[in-house]
């Protein structure tokens, strides 16, 4: 059985000469669903243009918006901006109906960096990571767990995982981290 | 591992991200109460069970989350095409002709 992992404190989870795995501080997360007609109004309210191609991200004023599906986005922002985002979207709700749900507590983020970061990702992700451009992200599967994989740099990845699945993935990454260093 | 092209993401991705959704193009009767028990049974349970090209639904469950349709050969597991859920049913003869042009040996 997977050991208990404290997910409330940002820290280094595993580090070796090959790669380092860190738990990132918590951010405000929203799940946004809206039709094509409402996108312009929502982009204005958020202050960031909603990307329209699946996997693309837009960033402005520390707010990150990722397109997950034809009518689905995830919005990440610093925790102190959460209320501002909720209020701005509520103000336009009558004109541009949408669903904005705060899911901050649902997920945690893990950052994977280092020369062998891509190798470490391949132990759980079946995708061809060369096809994931830097600056974009995809919802995919990581060792059976649905996850959002961000490529922040050629050797820098970020995994958004549902909290309850995190201990399983973290233990897998810890093992992989040690094994890659032993090669 | 099968590689499946998602028509919404427009990428060809590993099968692990997808789930199978049964036969495609089965329309729910507008008014089920009008149907006889036999017709309702046929709608619920009776499927074509094709050996060869099969029109079926798939869902990009660990991705965009969309249902879409595919034509897959149930013998070879080869996907002839995938298309969006609201697109019309493609002509099988055209698909088969395209497939044999790409791989003339088969």
UniProtKB/TrEMBL annotation, chain B:
Q: Which InterPro entries match?
A: SoxD, SoxD_sf
Q: Kindly indicate where the leader peptide sits in this chain.
A: none
Gene Ontology BP, a term: tetrahydrofolate metabolic process
GO molecular function terms noted in the UniProt entry: sarcosine oxidase activity
Q: Which Gene3D superfamilies would you find in this protein's record?
A: Folate-binding superfamily (3.30.2270.10)
Please name the Pfam families in this protein's record: SoxD (PF04267)
Q: What's the superkingdom here? A: Bacteria
**Name under which the protein is recorded:** Sarcosine oxidase subunit delta family protein
Query: Which species expresses this protein natively?
Result: Thalassospira lohafexi
């Amino acid at each position: 059985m997977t050991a208990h992992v404290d997910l409330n404190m940002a820290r280094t989870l595993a580090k070796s000469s090959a790669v380092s795995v860190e738990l990132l501080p918590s951010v405000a997360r929203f799940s946004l669903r809206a039709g094509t007609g409402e996108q312009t109004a929502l982009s204005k309210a958020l202050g960031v243009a909603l990307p329209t191609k699946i996997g693309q991200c837009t960033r402005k004023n520390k707010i990150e918006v990722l397109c997950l599906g034809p009518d689905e986005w995830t919005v990440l922002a610093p925790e102190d901006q959460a209320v501002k985002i909720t209020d701005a979207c509520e103000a336009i709700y009558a004109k541009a109906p949408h669903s904005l749900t705060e899911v901050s507590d649902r997920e945690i983020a893990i950052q994977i960096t280092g020369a062998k970061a891509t190798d470490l990702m391949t132990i759980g992700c079946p995708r061809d990571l060369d096809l994931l451009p830097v600056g974009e992200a995809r919802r995919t599967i990581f060792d059976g767990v649905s996850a959002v994989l961000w490529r922040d740099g050629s050797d820098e990845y970020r995994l958004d995982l549902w909290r309850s699945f995190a201990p399983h993935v973290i233990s897998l990454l810890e093992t992989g981290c040690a094994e890659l260093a032993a090669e | 591992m099968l590689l499946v092209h998602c028509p919404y993401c427009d990428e060809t991705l590993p099968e692990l991200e997808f789930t199978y959704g049964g036969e495609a193009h089965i329309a729910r009767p507008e008014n089920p109460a009008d149907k006889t028990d036999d017709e309702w049974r046929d709608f619920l349970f009776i499927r074509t069970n094709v050996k060869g090209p099969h029109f079926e639904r798939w869902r990009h469950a660990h991705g965009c989350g969309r249902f879409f349709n595919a034509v897959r050969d149930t013998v070879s597991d080869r996907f002839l095409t995938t298309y969006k859920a609201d697109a019309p049913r493609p002509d099988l003869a055209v698909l088969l002709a395209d497939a044999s042009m790409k791989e003339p040996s088969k």
